[in-house]
Amino acid sequence: MSLSASALPEDGVSSRILTVPNVLSLLRLLTVPVFLWLFTHGEENVAVVIYAAGACTDFFDGYVARRFNQVSEFGKLLDPLSDRVYIVSLAIVLVVRGTLPFWLAAAVIGRDVLILGALPLLAKKGVMRIPVNFTGKTATACLLFGFTCLAWSETTFVAAAAGDELGFPLVGVGAVLYWAAGAMYAREAMRRMAVGEVGDRGVML
């Protein structure tokens, strides 16, 4: 399913939908209702395994996309969407279970709410797609790993008690980086509007 370099447009981004990275991102998104149902119906062990496996696909889909020239326009939308849904869904469940403080969940979810609120305005002004930066990727990795650890603390697995000790620092660091990345996106969006760097390809945060 790989694309040759000659099959790609000049910017190296394919218009294909059916690629390995996109399938991985879609599978990650589709597992959300599964692990939520399991986690809230006394099957925490199975739910956490599914969540952890899905979180790992966030690394593999990006690696495959770059390594085998399968970066696509659809993937640039689907991958971050899957990440946001994956993070927010478990954050809400952990708050309900009393594992995650509401204020910490609000710090993470609030950033996404602000970003989503800004998208229509940026799209209206024609701001071109803003690529996900390294800080944003690191924040997502910390949050996925941190939430997995917190969910692990709700299981009967070995070392489950240590899940909180590792999970909270990771989520805290992830939340700070999350907002830092958001500030970088905002600054870049304002810069592009100031210099008139606009187009019709939408915005990607």
- The helicity comes to over 70%
Q: Would you list the SSEs in sequence order as H and E?
A: HHHHHH
Question: What does the radius of gyration come to?
Answer: 18 Å
Give the name of the CATH architecture. Up-down Bundle
The largest pleated sheet is described as: none
Uncertain segments are 1-10, 200-205
**How many discrete domains?**
1
Q: Could you tell me how far the N terminus lies from the C terminus, measured between alpha carbons in angstroms?
A: 27 Å
- Structural class by secondary-structure content: mainly alpha
Average predicted local confidence, pLDDT:
85
Beta strands, count: 0
Stated plainly, the CATH topology is called: Four Helix Bundle (Hemerythrin (Met), subunit A)
CATH class division: Mainly Alpha
Counting H and I runs of at least 4 residues, what is the number of helices? 6
- Our estimate of the beta-strand percent is under 5%
Instruction: Please state the overall shape, judged from the principal axes of the Cα atoms.
Output: globular
List the helices and strands and how they pair.
Elements: H1 20-39, H2 44-67, H3 73-97, H4 102-124, H5 134-152, H6 163-195
